[in-house]
Amino acid sequence: MQTPIPLATALELDAAILQAAITGCLALLCAFLYQRYGKTYFAWYATAWGLYVLRLGAIMGFLLTRNWTWLYWHQVITGWTALALLWAALVFSRQVRWRSTYLLAALFPLLWAYIAIYQMDNFLLAAGPAVLFLSLATLWTGWVFLRYWKLVGSTGAGILACAFILWSVHHLDYPFLRARGAWAPWGYYLDIAFALAVGAGIMVLVLDDLGRGLRALTELSGDLQRRGRGDVLTALLARPLTLPAVRGSALYLRETGRFERGAGQIANWTGSPPEAATALALQTAMSTGRPQVTDGGLMIPGNSGRDAIAYVAVLPVFTGTDASGALVLTGDARDPFTALDDDFLQALGRQVGAALANADLHEKLQARTVELARLSARMLEQHEEERRRLSRELHDETAQVFSAVKMELELLRGQVPGIAAPRLERMLGLIDKGIRGIRSVVNDLRPSLLDDLGLLPALRSLVADFSERSAIRITLEAPQGLPALSKDAELAVFRALQEALSNVVRHANAKTVSVQIALRGRTLMLVVADDGSGPHTTDTALLEREGHMGLTGMRERISALGGSVRFDGRPGAGARVEVQVPISAGEAA
Questions:
Q1: CB-based contacts of 305-313 (< 8 A; 24+ apart in sequence)
Q2: Hey, which end of the chain has fewer CB within 10 Å, N or C?
């Protein structure tokens, strides 16, 4: 007949089974996190919780059989569980690497459990060192998370610190209460509460890291929407310095093998090659395309003090599919990027690379635009020089020749027979007409009034001349005087009005034209509006392709001065040209 299990033992077994089920779920959760993110400390957490399940299995075996072997392994696995939790915390917060000397700590539970179970009769002496070892290991784990919480401000780290510190205090009651059955089964339920608190802390830690990583990406995305490479670099290196525990940032370029720029703690890395340990991390990161973190021991190049670098994190920066460089962060926390997912960090590296590439393209485009603007200005200058030369030749040579011919014909007027006089008069009339035509062309090529009297009288004369020649009623509204402009600005405004009126005469079929000249602050405005047929489109690019190149020349002249040209109109409603020239820009030009 089977001996019935005592009620107290049955209650303790039920509590142990519940705790084993919950702890097993925590082990599976950590294993999933390890599979998802590939972080080593999640694997150690899964191992620790797995050991905890084995520990509960050993205590259940002892409760059922009263075999001391089960109790021995219960004590051993309890110590190993505490060490595994401590090791997971150290790997998480400080990225500690394994050393063979750490095996000594793992041997202590094996040796002391044997002495306590099989060699000693005094319970307190046997249980005291084991309990103290367990409590100190748990307290150390709590202190690790407490230090990380102070560095980074992670809520999850704060929860874990509180849970492990309180759990370490709870371990101290074992020889006085739980081992004597006073806490059965409530001690198990308290352990369950602490285990759930640790599990909650791990999940909050994950959410903290994911949230900070997303915020870092969002903020950096905004910072990278700059145009110049210098602006992008400034934003790129300044943003990481706002992350918790980050003290320095630098951009390394594979092409040069040096840091292009540094900020914060490593500002003097600018232009220097990386240190040996950093160089290895850079090489690994760029060859694998995965972020790398290495521990400190590095001294800042060029710094004579003892300002050591605790951790160096390397984020590869991609141009296309290849890593062209890396963003290097230094700080006091083992994971300055505060992001769990390497895929997220790779996406961040690609975004940084794309921003730098776009900045380079923008600078090249700006340089090309400046070159084109300089070329356009040079072409306009040469155009004006050619106009000036033609005007001078027509005025000094052709017009003088016509005038000399006229004078000769005038001398012949009294000497020719009467029958030839009418023909001579017609010849003189044609010569007068030719001289007027030459003068008109000369005035169009290079307005002498602009050089002799200034901009406003030249504009008034231009309006009067167009009104007389075209029979179109042109009204002019202008102030009494205009501020002094540079020669280039005066010529650009004059040519703009000349081209606008020419377009009206050639294309608009207008009856009236309104010309307005006004000052708006430090801007000179010229508006030409007509009541003609209007353009068939307001797309100036299309009009230019159709041969209306006057708008192009007008825009090039005005843009060179920092001004703008606006063309508007619709079929049957006339057209309107608005020209704005900054007075200060004109003076500077």
A1: 307/265, 309/248, 309/265, 309/266, 311/95, 311/336, 312/277, 312/278, 312/281, 313/337
A2: N
Could you report the per-residue pLDDT of 469-498, keeping only the tens digit for each?
A: 788 888 899 888 888 888 778 888 888 888
CB burial of residue 575 (10 Å; 0-12, 13-18, 19+): buried
459: helix, coil or strand? helix
Is the separation of the CB atoms in 405 and 431 below 8 Å? yes
Comparing CA positions, the residue from 228, 251, 256 lying closest to residue 238 is 251
| Average pLDDT of the residues in 113-140 | 81
**Closest to 141 measured CA to CA, from 157, 126, 119:** 157
CA angle 4, 6, 7 (to 5 degrees): 120
Sequence-distant (≥ 6) Cβ neighbours of residue 223 within 8 angstroms: 235, 236, 238, 239
Cβ of 563: how many Cβ atoms within 10 Å? 24
Q: Could you tell me the CATH number of the domain that includes residue 127?
A: 1.20.1070
3 DSSP assignment? P
CATH number at residue 550: 3.30.565.10
Separation CA 105–CA 117 (nearest Å):
19
CA dihedral 42, 45, 47, 49 (to 10 degrees): -140
Q: What are phi and psi of 23, to 5 degrees?
A: -65, -35
Domain tally for the chain? 3
CA 235 to CA 246: how far, in whole Å?
A: 15
Element (H, E) at 523: strand 523-530
Q: Give the whole-angstrom CA distance, residue 84 versus residue 217.
A: 33
- CATH number assigned to the domain comprising residue 240: 3.30.450.40
Determine the structural domain holding residue 190 and report its residue range: 7-212
Distance between CA atoms of residues 426 and 449, nearest Å: 31
Helical pair 229-238 and 342-393, crossing angle rounded to 10 deg: 160
What's the whole-model pTM score?
Answer: 0.60
Tokens 């409590």 belong to: 135
Shared domain for 125 and 249, answered yes or no, is: no
Burial class of residue 504 (count of CB atoms within 10 Å of its CB; 0-12, 13-18, 19+): buried
Residue pair 236/223 in contact by the 8 Å Cβ criterion: yes
In this structure, the answer to whether residues 280 and 204 fall within a common structural domain is no
Helix (H, G, I), strand (E, B) or coil at 294: strand
pLDDT digits (tens, 9 = 90+) for 175-190: 655 555 556 677 788 8
Cα gap 305→299, rounded to integer Å: 9
Query: Identity (one letter) of the amino acid at 9?
Result: T
